[in-house]
Amino acid sequence: MKKKSFTMLLTALLTFSAMLSGCGNSNNEAAADPTTAPATGENTTKAAETEAPSEKPTEIKIMLPLNTTETPPDTIKAEVEKLTNTKLTYQFFPADTYEEKLNSSFATGSLPQVTYLKNQTTFIQMKEAIKDGQFWEIGPLLSEFPNLNKLKPEILNNTKVDGKLYSLYIGRPLARQGIIYRKDWADKLGLQPPANTDELLAMAKAFTEQDPDGNGKKDTTGIVDRNELTYGAFKTVSSWFGTPNTWGEVDGKLAPEFTFQQYTDTMDFFKKIREGGYMNQDFAATSKTDAVNMFTSGKAGLYIGGSMQDIDTLNKDLIKNFPDAVLDTHSMVADKDGKFAQWMIPGYNNVVLFPKTSVKDEAELKKILTFFDKMMTPEVANLMYWGIEGTHYTVEDGKAKPTDDKELIEREVKGYKDSVIGEAETNGMYLSLNVLPGRIHAEELVLENVKVGVPDPTAALDSTTYTEKGVELQQIITDATYKYIYGQIDKAGFDKEVETWKSRGGAQIIEEYNAVYKK
């Protein structure tokens, strides 16, 4: 893909959509390495006399999105540099405008040696540039790096482009989404966690109309949502209605999710909730930050989608305002036939690429991969994910227990945490020692979600037209979905937009995916 066309595609994404993101888990305590114990006495002198000069630190520039309000200090970076023999320059840019920076850096050929994308959407958009030979292929080199070689093959396969591997992935649980809700409100109103979509609507209505906060005012709402169909509430609720995950099968052939009746049922659900006043009316124009603030300021009782593991952060901010508030999580919501389903991601939420404009040759690439190989040791992974033991966390029962100073962790660790390659099973990070009942419940639900998980059948497939036009075309459906929910178009109007999607390239995407499906 040429830089100009990529710029146009990313500009389309900037104008119309944003996808978020989130957080993962960790695993396993690092074992001490006896070979690192210092020599003593005579052996120390001999070692000093025979030891080769230390290798010069590898200088690496890294660009990545920042999901906090402040750029982190060098506290963690300095320790990582010591452990990996590197000199690191991190270029943090706010996540909300990251695509714009990615766009301009790509267009000017100024991407650094290590370039993190933002999410799966920006990765899809980058595929044309990858095919155009502008990034290094790393697949044939992974066998030279014992830790990188532990990355899960099934997830690596989901990130391949034309059967070749160019990226490392940031792993995430397959199905973390669900509901974070005000349990204290539900208890006061005598409500149980919603067993089906009808009960979900009833809870949203009750949280709006029955004064759950007891202040005698009608100033609360049920669901707070944001301008994101995938990681907001819509896709999660849609899976509860039985909608396929992005693509589904009809008579042995793939068809996009928005052509299924269940997708329409989901639009009807949100249309009814919005018209009833049971959610924020301007959700299509509400940012994630504003949605979170609305929830933690006590104005809404249901936060759906994203990650149930966000309950820790939401709880921290909520109890500052309402010390007696209680949050819990829930995800087992059945459709009208009593069936459960959860959509699943392809096992990653972001990837990192290595531009040829900044990585000059394979020797330099291998030095950079050596850094990532060291990142996938428990010592480095725990440092970057959890911080400094004794300062940011302690270890109890072989698990990491974050300090009570959440602001310190947010300020000093979060920026680096979001860049850790792999996942618990592959890099040896500690699991989290969870103490908040709702978070403990969330971890249990994540495991249950996978049991009824629905994968995207196109995750490992490739469509040239989708790579070139997919995000642009998806905006047609996104806009039509919002218009339907807002009552600006009816079903006939929505179907007309689907036909527009097909005529502008969607039909070709369907044809291309089916050409490689089940091969």
TrEMBL record:
Q: Which Gene3D superfamilies match?
A: Periplasmic binding protein-like II
Which region ranges are annotated with the description Disordered? 29-60
* InterPro entries from the UniProt entry: Bact_solute-bd_prot1, SBP
Q: Which residues form the signal peptide?
A: 1-20
In terms of superkingdom, the source organism counts as: Bacteria
Regions of biased composition (Low complexity) lie at 30-40
Does the entry feature the keyword Oxidoreductase, yes or no?
no
Q: CDD domains attached here?
A: PBP2_AlgQ_like_1
Instruction: Write the record's keywords in alphabetical order, separated by commas.
Output: Cell membrane, Lipoprotein, Membrane, Palmitate, Signal
Fetch the PANTHER family from UniProt.
ARABINOSE-BINDING PROTEIN-RELATED (PTHR43649), POLYGALACTURONAN_RHAMNOGALACTURONAN-BINDING PROTEIN YTCQ (PTHR43649:SF33)
| Name of this protein | ABC transporter substrate-binding protein
Native source species: Paenibacillus donghaensis
